[in-house]
User: Which sequence fits this backbone?
């Protein structure tokens, strides 16, 4: 009988983007005359514990003493934290619902604010392990339950030994207490979660670095909201590109490399290229860029990019021929929109297509030479594989056809091979 997988997930800076006690301090001490100094002290204590430089129990005790918080402050914190769930966790809510029996939240934080946040994602209350506050009759937080193993140094290890769970255990977190589970041999693999913060002392010890929850689901072949993690999509920035343009692409989760030129080592793996005005695309390197899907050019690409070759290869170009200052951000946004939804609106060389996103479906993109009968072949493939089509879009120009098909999330992956084998296919990809 196959062992059941159990996923042990941290809360602070993992399930949420922030450290909850730090945020609680900002609420409870908002009117304190020395608030900035106290905020800094609490953040320092948090980081020392997360990096393994201070015992967790000592860090926790000192932080709680500094809080001066109450139950009313907790209510404000919960409202705030619900808006701060990590993006990759939020978009994979369906995974938590489907695998509720296999997911544990294990945190050195506190149930009082953790439970209301994670319960929205169908995580069972009995699977939430965290500390609890001690309050006075008027609701003032004065201490915490020191008998809880999670309040102690090595608390997560102690808890797991006590639970004695059967199955293969996988840990996901950003701090030293998460790594300790791997060090103790209690879990099979430790995934250092770096979407919100990357601690080198933890990353260096991890079995796998996961910049998003999508990456964790991908490497473990688990159901996910997007088919391919954005952190695996290489976006090359060439030349003197404005920092705000780069920031937009980085914020969306792509793996960014900023270089003076199109270096040989990136040619076969690059998915996106954003070029400064005046830069030129080497024709020979372009031919070898088999994974390249879109080029953004912050200027006029005439005589600098082989547009015909790009079209032939199914590469979408977004350009700024008039050097409009607003296009510093407009061009990267078009590239992002294309990668996220398949929209080719205002592209230089592709049929212009704007697309709605359809929930609970997967979007397939098929770029092909514009010859009669291709759509009939595409839909024959879907019929043979009993695929339920939710929505379908087609635009053509004299050279290419651009077909988008949204299908039901349940499907046989062999359908991809069949679509790629259709004669006249230029590019095929699964969007989400």
Assistant:
């Amino acid at each position: 009988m196959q062992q059941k997988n159990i996923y042990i997930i941290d809360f602070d800076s993992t399930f949420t983007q922030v450290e909850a006690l730090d945020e609680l301090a900002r609420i409870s001490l908002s009117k304190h005359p020395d608030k900035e100094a106290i905020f800094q002290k609490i953040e320092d204590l948090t980081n020392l514990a997360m990096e393994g430089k201070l015992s967790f129990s000592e860090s926790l005790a000192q932080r709680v003493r500094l809080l001066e918080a109450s139950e009313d402050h907790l209510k404000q914190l919960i409202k705030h934290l619900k808006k701060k769930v990590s993006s990759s966790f939020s978009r994979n809510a369906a995974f938590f619902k489907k695998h509720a029996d296999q997911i544990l939240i294990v945190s050195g934080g506190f149930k009082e604010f953790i439970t209301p946040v994670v319960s929205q994602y169908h995580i069972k209350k009995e699977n939430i392990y965290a500390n609890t506050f001690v309050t006075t009759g008027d609701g003032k937080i004065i201490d915490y339950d020191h008998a809880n193993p999670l309040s102690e140094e090595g608390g997560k290890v102690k808890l797991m030994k006590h639970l004695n769970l059967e199955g293969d255990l996988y840990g996901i977190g950003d701090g030293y207490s998460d790594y300790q589970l791997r060090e103790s041999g209690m879990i099979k693999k430790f995934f250092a979660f770096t979407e919100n913060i990357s601690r080198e002392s933890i990353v260096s010890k991890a079995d796998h670095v996961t910049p998003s929850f999508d990456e964790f689901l991908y490497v473990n072949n688990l159901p996910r909201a997007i088919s391919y993690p954005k952190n695996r999509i290489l976006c090359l920035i060439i030349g003197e590109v404005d920092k705000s343009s780069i920031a937009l692409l980085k914020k969306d989760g792509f793996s960014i490399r900023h270089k003076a030129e199109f270096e040989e080592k990136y040619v076969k793996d690059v998915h996106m290229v954003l070029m400064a005005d005046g830069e030129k695309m080497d024709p020979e390197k372009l031919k070898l860029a088999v994974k390249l899907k879109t080029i953004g050019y912050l200027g006029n690409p005439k005589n600098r990019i082989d547009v015909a070759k790009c079209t032939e290869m199914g590469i979408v170009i977004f350009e700024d021929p008039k050097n409009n200052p607003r296009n510093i951000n407009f061009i990267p946004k078009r590239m992002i929109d294309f990668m996220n939804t398949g929209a080719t609106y205002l592209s230089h060389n592709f049929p212009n297509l704007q697309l709605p996103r359809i929930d609970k479906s997967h979007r397939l993109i098929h770029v092909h030479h514009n010859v009669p009968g291709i759509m009939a072949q595409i839909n024959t493939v879907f019929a043979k594989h009993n695929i339920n089509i939710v929505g379908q879009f087609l635009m053509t120009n004299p050279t290419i056809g651009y077909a988008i098909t949204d299908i039901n999330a349940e499907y046989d992956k062999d359908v991809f091979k069949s679509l790629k084998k259709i004669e006249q296919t230029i590019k095929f990809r699964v969007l989400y």
About this structure: Residues 132 and 145 are 6 Å apart (CA to CA). The chain has a mean pLDDT of 92. The chain is about 35% helix and 20% strand.
